[in-house]
Amino acid sequence: MGKKIVWVLVAVIVLAAAAAFFFNRYYKTQTPDTSLPDSLTVTLGELNQSNEFGVATITEQSDKTVVNVNLEGEVPSGVVQLAHIHNGSCDNLGDIWQGLTSVIDGQSQSNLEISMLDIANNLPLAINVHKSAEEPQVFVACGNISF
To answer: Which family does it belong to (predicted)?
Structure first.
């Protein structure tokens, strides 16, 4: 009877260890990635001799993100300039990943329902500004998002 108890104890220990392993592996809660910054600045370089350049500031606020675009140089007055976050890089823009509020007089603020972690998980991404709503095929400024 003593050997039977030992085998039962061994079986219980093995089952408990296996249960703990699988529980930890499949049901573990994710902890937030605290290595990501709360704010990040993207340099927007001039494209197509537009003489428009500047910065975009991306700031996380409670799992949402605010993107402020500020252009300088020869910014057209009163012109609606489309702006987006695209998949890819400035050298190889892909599809639009997130729309941004259009830039007017060099300024734009967008409130997005995404987090910094969402941005980090979808890199490479780039912020792109278009010449106007009438000429969306002409890009005037772009910056690659990187952490």
So the answer is: Belongs to the Cu-Zn superoxide dismutase family.
